[in-house]
Amino acid sequence: MKTSWRSASLVASAAAVLVLTTACGQESGTPPASQNVGATAPAGGYGSSGLGATTAGTGTGTGADAGAAAGEQNAGAQSASAGKLSVSANTELGQVLTDSAGRTLYRFDQDTAEPPKTNCEGDCATAWPPVPADDATAGEGIDESMLGEVTRPDGTKQLTVGGWPAYRYAKDVNPGDTKGQGVGGTWYALAPDGKKASASGSAEDLPGLSTRNDPKLGEIVVDKNGHTVYRFMKDSQWPMKTACTGECLEKWPVIAPVDAKDTKGIDLQGSTPNRGYVVFDRPDGIKQQTIDCIPIYTFAGDKKPGDTNGQGVGGTWFAIRSDGKPVGAPGE
């Protein structure tokens, strides 16, 4: 197979994340035991490899559990060669890339395309089997120059599309299944050009954090996938502490650090000049982005860009504005 990828010679340059945790009076003590995560919130979250559990409507359980159960059931099919790739029309996602058996192909946000690199190994690769590159060919509607390969740590060759390593999802049992879409906020169906599949055409990646105008909530913050960003009213700003740990994080995944240069429309100053946009070193070891020293999250129940299903959950979770203020919270 012809090996190529876009701009493979380019080396991404990323500025260091602004880390000023002491500016928010951060404390590293044990967080409060009481957590109101919202009884109506569906299970979601991240496994040890960065894979997430499926959200409501697509099953439950951790990524590792999903991989173990579905992997045993579908291991042979998932490890099969890709063959001639096709483009499938999906009502919700638009054009989706599939293998010769009609199985949906996915990309992982924690991988990179320039240069191509995979960061899905171990349990992650069980839940998300890498697509072999050996016999993959471009079918109708697919530019052959988009197809390439990357050498995995174990020495095998994995298919890339537009530079992005391609995977199947172990819980997609039938042709056309898209149960992996949006899992953990990091897994997305591939469009023919390697971008994330979108009903309006392949989606351009948004900045790490930006704002959009919601018809009901007004201007709110969204992440790089267009998912609504929330704050937890039981968290503390001064000093900065979190009340969302353990199972809470399965429903409310944290926003990983986002370089200040990878934002648009976000108030980087905060109420304390030059000190509002910092990274929170949580007691559980996870690094979390903040806006005005307020820890920020997404919601596992938001399945697609534009969803605001987390708004008002438990009376403690609210979308935020660019300055970190909650939208619609009592007293605000």
Automatic annotation (TrEMBL):
Question: What residue range is the signal peptide?
Answer: 1-25
A biological process (GO) of this protein is: alkane catabolic process
Alphabetical list of PROSITE patterns matching this protein: PROKAR_LIPOPROTEIN (PS51257)
Keywords recorded for this protein, A-Z: Lipoprotein, Signal
Q: What is the protein's name according to its record?
A: Lipoprotein
